[in-house]
Amino acid sequence: MIAFLEGTLISGGTEAVVAVGGGIGLDVLVSGQSAEQLPAPGEAVRLWTHLAVREDNWSLYGFVQADERAMFRLLISVSGVGPKVAMGMLSRAKADDIAGFLRTGDEKSLTALPGIGKKSAARLVVELGQRVPDMGLLAGAQAAPSHTGLAEALAVLGAMGLPAARAEQALMQARSADPALADDLQAWVRVALQNV
Questions:
Q1: Rounded to an integer, what distance in angstroms lies between the CA atom of residue 152 and that of residue 189?
Q2: Could you tell me what percent of the chain has a pLDDT over 90?
């Protein structure tokens, strides 16, 4: 799997092109939120990525912030929510706002997002309401490696089926015991699992 890519932004927008070296440029589908945060063409860029492979198509999705990618992956884990719908949601609302809608059961706000009807909103709340990480912890602190790592660690534990609140508690407990753990995602998740 491609975790992230670094290179030179050739063209921005929601269908960005990034030159990654060796004469290779990648088409990357970017959410509206991330597209607004992209640098000017010709500048260096790093995007957290998700590769979606279908029988007839491979698509690379890119996100400026790791928490946005974590939310994307949570959204597409729900039946009926594909990458296109998830990108539409993330183009209209920030990851932490969507997390808040899910945690509080705010179906009305979810149905205001593109591609989400009443049934989809209800399914999202039921399936993700208790699993979604508290993305609000990351607000204003995206540059700090430990916070970016927190989003990734929460996403990993969430994918393992651990409820978001319990995962968050275990990660905080592990980091309190050894602050250096936040710099090594695998070790942090391993120690957090011992605290569950």
A1: 10
A2: 49
